[in-house]
Amino acid sequence: MPSDPRALQNQLLAALPAAEFEHFSSLLEPVEMAAGEVLYESGGQLQHVYFPTTAIVSLLYVLENGSTAEIAMVGNEGILGISLFMGGETTPSRAVVQRAGQAWRLRADLIKLEFNRAGPLLRLLLRYTQALITQMMQTAVCNRHHGVEQQVCRWLLLRLDRMSGQSLSMTQELIANLLGVRREGVTEAAGRLQRLGLIRYSRGRIEVLDRAGLEHAACECYRVVKHEFDRLLPPPPAEAGAGGTGYHGRSP
């Protein structure tokens, strides 16, 4: 299909120089992602990479007893399926759509071809991979050393960074499953954050009332992850003042 300006909603695609974007975006296929849809299973052969625009996807580690815990989330800042261009064909994690929305996908053979061209896309994807690894490492540290309330704050902030608006539909049970903690702990944490005036929670919807206060209540893990993404990747188009033209003209 011809290049589509909607692809600029993904920050990695928008970061490509104009000529690279025109070439690369013509290879992409638009897809709709439904909440709960499984894009990859642990150990499964990867057929595509995905560039989310409005969808958000959780990368989950699945234990032998079926329990899961989120190790990272990917939204409009990134790409799903890094194993394909990092030399592997499978991934140990399960990718599940957390928030329904749109994405662009690219066949496995095409992403390998583009990566091996060793152009701007290669450098951009390697820097994103480093940022994603930081998120995974910090998630492991946070789950081991910080309380449920701080984990909930970190998770909410990471989610907000990958969407527009300040409210999200999410049950406490689902948050508990993603964090790998008991639901009672999430209920207690959400109740305290609500009493502090940081969020409003009602019937599976969480509205953030005080973003700055939520950041203050979070542990350093959120700030470490955000700093690494900000350091390694270009800012969103609105911050870059691109006026709808993405980051074209900047060297990634």
UniProtKB/TrEMBL annotation:
<dbReference type="InterPro" id="IPR018490">
    <property type="entry name" value="cNMP-bd_dom_sf"/>
</dbReference>
<dbReference type="Pfam" id="PF00027">
    <property type="entry name" value="cNMP_binding"/>
</dbReference>
<keyword id="KW-0804">Transcription</keyword>
<feature type="region of interest" description="Disordered">
    <location>
        <begin position="233"/>
        <end position="252"/>
    </location>
</feature>
<dbReference type="Pfam" id="PF13545">
    <property type="entry name" value="HTH_Crp_2"/>
</dbReference>
<keyword id="KW-0805">Transcription regulation</keyword>
<dbReference type="InterPro" id="IPR000595">
    <property type="entry name" value="cNMP-bd_dom"/>
</dbReference>
<feature type="domain" description="HTH crp-type">
    <location>
        <begin position="146"/>
        <end position="212"/>
    </location>
</feature>
<dbReference type="InterPro" id="IPR012318">
    <property type="entry name" value="HTH_CRP"/>
</dbReference>
<feature type="domain" description="Cyclic nucleotide-binding">
    <location>
        <begin position="12"/>
        <end position="97"/>
    </location>
</feature>
<protein>
    <submittedName>
        <fullName>Crp/Fnr family transcriptional regulator</fullName>
    </submittedName>
</protein>
<dbReference type="InterPro" id="IPR050397">
    <property type="entry name" value="Env_Response_Regulators"/>
</dbReference>
<dbReference type="InterPro" id="IPR014710">
    <property type="entry name" value="RmlC-like_jellyroll"/>
</dbReference>
<feature type="compositionally biased region" description="Gly residues">
    <location>
        <begin position="241"/>
        <end position="252"/>
    </location>
</feature>
<dbReference type="InterPro" id="IPR036390">
    <property type="entry name" value="WH_DNA-bd_sf"/>
</dbReference>
<keyword id="KW-0238">DNA-binding</keyword>
